[in-house]
Protein 1
Amino acid sequence: MSCSTCQLLFHTHCANISDAKYDVLNEKNSIIFWFCHACKITTKSMFNQLAQVLLELTEIKSERDQQKNEIATLSNLLRAFNDRMKKIEAETEVYATNLESTHTMVRDMLAELPQVTSIEEGFASIEDRFDQMSQHNSEDTRKQNDIEQRVLQIEKNCEELKSQLEVNNCMCASTCISTQTLTSQINPMSYPDTATVAEITNELEERNKRRSSLVVHNLPEPTNENDDEVHVSNLLREVLDNPNEALFPTDVEFPGTKLFRFGQRMPHRVRSLNVHLKSADLRDKVLLNSRRLIKSENYSNIVLQKDMTPMERVHLKKLIYEKKRRNFEARQNHEEPNWTIQGGILFRRCRS
């Protein structure tokens, strides 16, 4: 049974999987996933942290949307108020013009008819009305200033909220790893105990870049320009069941860094070859069937290996040392030295 997280194979008897469970998990369109014990323990806490960060991010976005709606409402009110002020200013100009003409006319009449006093009272009434309009205009201006101050305060709050949201987005980018990435790439034992979240994120990105690459060891140095292409094509033909699915140039991409040798060419030294295939599934299939090269006439000494990151290579060296140490102790204790490495994990083989 293959673990849905680390893709390692486990014996059903060792993993305590009954035949009925095995049949359900291996149905063609089954959406049920099975996880090994190590992956269950490791991914549980990371999923909880991811859910918490996503919840906080949703709350921040909700508050930001609420602030935006409030700003839009106040902006509409401010535009309506400005329109009203323009209308009042136009009416005030008309009233002022009419008042000036009336003032001039009344003064002329008073000069000719000094005995008329009711006109003076009417003129005084008109001036009082003008003063009332001026006071109303001053009150509207004060209200407009208050609204403008409130809009400025809301805009300032929005800028602070935007800055906080950007900080949270950066935190989310460094801590939130999608469920698909977690279930397909995380092997918790391959990271140092002191590794930070940022280092693990960078490591995952680097592994994703190498997901469809493999390294070919002991392949003779090319004497002609196309020797590497021919050798790799022949290798894929011998490894795969259907040779047509791995013919050049469909599966191996050229030119540039898609097919290259590591290091500089030196006498009496065979450099390893990096091959970038068209998909990760094809690379996994090639690695799974690489044992067929043992019976090959031309490539029996060739070793195929996945393209590992520096962190994975350090982890592999530690596993190899630990494997040798445990097998040595097993021999000293007259036990079977059955410690082995598979999928980046050191484990003891179970007898079937």
Protein 2
Amino acid sequence: MFKYKTLKKMIFISIILLMMVFSLSSCLVTDKTLTEKNNGDSLNLKINDTVEIKLESNPTTGYSWFLSDNIDETIVSVTGPEFRESKKDEELIGAGGFEIFTIKAIAKSKTDIILNYQRPWEEDVGSNSLKIHLDAFHMNIEEKDSGEAIRKAGKLLYNFHANENDCGAPGTGQIHWDIIAKALKDIKYDRYLVIESFTPDIELIARAASIWRETEKSAWILAEKGLTFLKGIF
């Protein structure tokens, strides 16, 4: 959930803008849709030809595709990205989809298209409003070391979801709360600890979060158990 380098991807596509379309990349010209499989390909276009670059993405993770500044916009025009949900997951909250860039040839020459998949805070964005929200449930799935992820977030950590591995009350499952508590103390975190849980009664959310059973007999019991546990470790 909080990896700077290992989750970063780059797509490199060379766009060669000529007056005629050659057979070098004829399959691409026919489809006029590029994906990650075309990373490193060269493409010949005529002026006014357009192609789409369609890349898998899930903005709810904080990652998005960004166009590198090296593109020559006197040769091509670029619009986007436009996010489109995956049809098979369109009813799921937080589901992924595709980011689509549209490239149009406007002059004869050659340019490169470089797209990076990254979180915007990996570089200085010049805003004090940008903060980080971590979630113990997701960190348990995605992180190698939840404590290290918290320490990397440091002073940027603004909100923390104290959820168990089954979205139940903290302290009733398999999360290593001793590691999380120590890391939060190490960075002197003094903001919110939120117990986020779900109920199978709300079918849409239950399906999105894969909740198939009650974790406690009632929401009050869950809240009381979780609060008692968190007070005990902090």
